[in-house]
Design a protein that fits this description.
The complex is a heterodimer of chains A (354) and B (285). Chain A is α/β, with parallel strands linked by helices and 354 residues long. Chain A is 39% helix and 17% strand. In chain A, strands 2-1-3-4-6-5-10 form a 7-stranded mixed sheet, sandwiched between helices. A 5-stranded mixed sheet of chain A has the order 7-9-8-11-12, sandwiched between helices. In chain A, β1, α4 and β2 form a beta-alpha-beta unit. In chain A, α10 packs across α14. Chain A is globular and about 60 Å long. Chain B is α/β, with parallel strands linked by helices and 285 residues long. Chain B contains 10 helices and 5 strands; from the N terminus they run αααβααβαβααβαβα. Chain B is globular, with a radius of gyration of 18 Å. Chain B starts with a helix and ends in a 16-residue tail after the last helix. Classes of the chains: A alpha/beta (354), B alpha/beta (285). Chains A and B meet through α5 and α7 of A and α5 and α6 of B.
């Protein structure tokens, strides 16, 4: 396990030639220890101060990194609205020993720049770290052009690419130091929604087991974790024994945790803001086949369709992905039409648009 | 350029062309596209670039990126002659015991980045140029594109970004052999007037005869052309240069000759006789 603080020391250790002046480093570490909670921008700033390999790149999507051009100087590179050139240039920078963290919208990165990611980052296995904005339902009102709901499928198909989806901002901040310190290329579904759950420390390839259940286990990742927590409570109130797993790391997958769930015999629910094809449902199916296992599985995903654009609360209500709807859909699968599973779920709207 | 140096470069280029011809059988290769940039690659590696088998790990070496990757026989022929790789390795062409195939890859020392998909390396080279500048290094970062490759929007996108960031250590070199894959550029997607296009995208441009070593030297030794702009050198070349029987032919991009034809083509290279080609032409795109 890599804590935030340990990872900074790790970066310094790995990279002695770029050690800042000792006084500067001590000042930085003091400041880190005083900062109880950082946001994404502060975390990337502090990491860049400690590790000169780290660069910040963006295709003019600065929402989370607006204040960094000044402090980072030449290490902040905005290529304009050019996802392909940004990824190609990131590969060139990584070839020279840098660790570029690139920022753009998930759909344009994974679709328009797909071949650049696959060919320039994937083939040479360069440590380019992709921070993809507004993935899945988080693009709420933007419409289908902006709906990255095949991104997990595409990114996990690239050999050597790692894929991460934090449940909320706190989860993301717990995950990032390890992701950035890794030598692997990485795709991250950026999620800055406020946490509704106190997360455990992160380790690449390990899921977070929130609860174990005899009747139902919900496997999920990303922003739907928040709704899954609500669904879990509603189903528990209705008398079910409910497990909940926040996968966090989709590739590498915590196979042991998922196999344990499958072998436990409960109904397995794969819950994701992604096309049903290629995402978690497919990941589970591949794992089951590889182990000659079968299971009762309920996929809650977008089956062969883009979702109705609107405010996030409208999207989740319309598409059936609020906590209440998730509980109801699972209940129906178990033949439970008796419960209404509470009142309409109140959904906190997104603060972050592109 | 002294006549001695010119003579030495010409002889080296002839040996590189022999390698290209020998690779044009048993599966074949992109012969026409390789012959057009042989003089350019020979000049760059033998005379201009600060890169040689002894400094391939030096972060301050010059970088050359071959974005039009299908002309790899010219690159590998040059590498074999200059000691980057043993000449025998070329006999592994298309064999599974090695990685000598139709596009460059980094298992061959001296290849800075793999290519094959067009329009990628201008942006990769841009990243390297940005890093070199960040570290205060002075080396040249050169990327060679085909002219057909300029159909790809990402070539222009990368130049737009390079101009915006005033990357003056980046040079785009166009092997202007006037052909796309199997069609003349001006008959399909016309590029002319080409120099003003690059100028409009913020580069300083020189246009030269890409087979004239003196002209190559004059252009490259004048780099960078500006203190705050990327440079572009358009090398007008002849596809199939050195083999009159395939020169300027749209249908001789990719060639897979018989062993008899290879023997004859090697003589043709030395201006001994014309080759009567009987092998079928291949259209691979």
């Amino acid at each position: 396990m890599l804590t935030k603080e340990a990872s900074y020391h790790g970066c310094l250790r790995q990279n002695p030639s770029y050690l800042p002046e000792r006084r500067e480093r001590d000042r930085m570490l003091r400041r880190l220890s005083m900062t109880s909670k950082m946001n994404y921008e502060q975390l990337i700033h502090e990491t860049a101060l400690a590790d000169e390999r780290l660069l910040v790149m963006t295709a003019e999507n600065r929402a989370l990194i607006r204040n960094l051009p000044g402090p980072l100087g030449a290490r902040f590179i905005d290529t304009g609205i050019t996802e392909q050139t940004m990824i190609g240039a990131a590969a060139g920078l990584a070839l020279r020993g840098r660790v570029p963290v690139v920022h753009a919208l998930a759909t344009f990165l994974t679709l328009r720049a797909f071949e650049f990611i696959r060919t320039d980052v994937g083939i040479p296995h360069l440590p380019v770290k992709i921070s993809a904005f507004v993935p899945g339902f988080l693009s709420d009102g933007n419409g289908p052009t902006h709906q990255a709901i095949e991104d997990v499928s595409l990114m996990r198909g690239i050999p050597g690419m790692t894929v991460f989806a934090p449940a909320d901002e706190q989860d993301m901040l717990a995950m990032l130091p390890a992701i950035w310190a890794s030598p692997d290329p990485a795709y991250l579904r950026v999620n800055t929604r406020p946490a509704t759950y106190q997360h455990t420390p992160f380790e690449i390839g390990k899921a977070e087991i929130v609860s174990e259940g005899k009747d139902i286990t919900i496997l999920t990742y990303g922003m739907l974790f928040e709704q899954a927590l609500i669904a879990k409570d509603l189903l528990t109130q209705a008398g079910y024994s409910v497990g909940l797993v926040n996968l966090r790391s989709l590739k590498p997958l915590d196979e042991a945790a998922v196999l344990k769930v499958v072998r436990g015999g409960s109904l397995v629910v794969t819950l994701e803001d992604h096309f049903q094809t290629g995402g978690l449902y497919s990941i589970l199916a591949e794992l089951l086949l590889a182990h000659e296992l079968t299971a009762k599985v309920l996929p809650l995903a977008l089956k062969e369709r883009w979702y109705k654009p609107g405010l996030l609360s409208e999207v989740l209500e319309y598409e059936g992905f609020t906590g209440q709807h998730i509980a109801r859909r699972i209940g129906e699968r178990l033949g439970d039409g008796a419960h209404t599973f509470g009142a309409k779920t109140k959904v906190v709207e997104n603060e972050f648009a592109e | 350029m002294t006549s001695e140096k010119k003579q030495a470069l010409s002889e080296l280029a002839l040996r590189v062309r022999e390698h290209i011809v020998r690779l044009s059988t048993d599966g074949g290769c992109f012969t026409g596209a390789s012959l057009s940039c042989a003089d350019l690659l020979v000049y760059l590696y033998a005379d201009f670039l600060n890169v040689h088998p002894g400094n391939l790990q030096d972060p301050e070496r010059d970088y050359l990126f071959l974005s039009k990757g299908h002309d790899v026989p010219a690159l590998y022929g040059t590498f074999a002659e200059l000691g980057f790789m043993p000449k025998e390795r070329l006999s592994n062409h298309l064999k599974s015991n090695d990685s000598i195939y139709w596009h460059p890859n980094r298992s061959v020392p001296g290849v800075e980045f793999h290519s094959g998909s067009l329009g990628h390396l201008p942006s990769v080279a841009l990243g390297v140029a940005l890093d070199a500048r960040m570290r205060g290094q002075q080396q040249h970062v050169i990327v060679i594109t085909g002219d057909g490759e300029l159909n790809e929007g990402t070539c222009w996108e990368a130049l737009l970004v390079a101009s915006a960031h005033k990357v003056n250590n980046l040079t785009i070199v166009v092997d202007r052999n006037h052909f796309q894959a199997n069609i003349a550029t001006e008959d399909l997607i016309p590029l002319e007037p080409l120099a003003p296009k690059f100028e409009a995208f913020g580069a300083v441009v020189k246009r030269i005869d890409g087979h004239d070593f003196t002209a190559l030297e004059e252009a490259f030794t004048a780099l960078p052309f500006s203190s705050d702009k990327p440079s572009v050198i358009i090398c007008d070349t002849v596809r199939g240069r050195g083999l009159p029987s395939i020169e300027r032919r749209a249908d001789r991009w990719f060639c897979n000759f018989s062993s008899e034809e290879i023997t004859s083509l090697l003589k043709e290279l030395h201006s001994q006789e014309a080759t009567k080609l009987t092998s079928e032409t291949l259209t691979v795109r």
